[in-house]
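Tokens in:
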């Protein structure tokens, strides 16, 4: 790396970002990376991940993730602890999606992951600085987002960097069960509280962990939200 350059300015990451225009949505971003040789490498409820051709980077792409900017803030503000993924770039995607370009990480055995989450929840000395940043950024997310969940202690979010250290990823999530139940039952409330450009693709999240989507569920929710949007413009 040249002196004075941040990781996001090094050439593989700059090239990856250049592929993705400022107006890209989650589909454009995924297509651009696939065409450049990136390969699918994982999926959760909110996002899918792709691995870079050289294997050193991962792109996390979500169609709808209100917590993405808070996650990016956590990765930046806690970078000095080395206990979060190294973030090469963050970009909001058109329609409310989110793109994070970060270091490639490996899964770790479940007990090791659970112990790391336990250290975080008890603010053990070795993670105290990290926990301070987590609490500060999470408090802001709880204050600013209409639906924000507690910290995600899913063991799959603790991973290992190529250098062997443990990191915690993807700690924040929108309160999906409540948000999606409301979208199904009372779409007008969701429409009133989340601007359309921030939730255009909310029925496209993968739901790979707690799903799958039931047949017809996405279409029905999309139609309900569209009808609620139409009521606000004609009201
Ligand atoms: N930096 C990374 N390196 C390798 N795989 C990753 C990385 N980030 C995410 N993944 C994979 O993508 C999956 C989903 O990412 P995650 O950020 O946990 O999204 P979700 O909000 O859907 O849980 C993870 O479980 C993991 O398999
Ligand atoms: Mg996750």
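Residues out:
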């Amino acid at each position: 790396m040249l002196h004075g350059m941040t990781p996001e300015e090094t050439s593989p990451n700059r090239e990856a970002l250049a592929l993705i225009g400022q107006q890209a949505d989650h589909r454009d971003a995924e297509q651009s990376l696939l065409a450049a040789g990136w390969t699918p490498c994982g999926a959760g409820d909110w996002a899918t991940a792709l691995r870079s051709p050289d294997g050193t980077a991962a792109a996390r792409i979500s169609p709808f993730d209100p917590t993405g900017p808070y996650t990016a803030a956590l990765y930046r503000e806690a970078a000095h602890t080395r206990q979060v993924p190294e973030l090469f770039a963050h970009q909001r995607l058109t329609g409310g999606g989110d793109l994070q370009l970060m270091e490639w990480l490996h899964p770790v055995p479940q007990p090791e992951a659970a112990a790391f989450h336990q250290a975080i929840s008890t603010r053990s000395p070795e993670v105290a600085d990290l926990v301070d940043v987590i609490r500060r950024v999470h408090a802001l997310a709880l204050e600013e987002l209409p639906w924000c969940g507690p910290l995600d202690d899913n063991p799959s979010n603790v991973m290992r960097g190529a250098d062997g250290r443990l990191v915690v990823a993807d700690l924040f999530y929108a309160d999906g069960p409540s948000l999606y139940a409301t979208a199904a039952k009372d779409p007008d409330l969701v429409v009133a509280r989340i601007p359309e450009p921030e939730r255009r693709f909310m029925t496209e999240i993968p739901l790979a962990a707690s799903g799958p989507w039931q047949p017809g569920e996405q279409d029905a929710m999309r139609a309900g939200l569209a009808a609620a949007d139409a009521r606000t413009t004609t009201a």
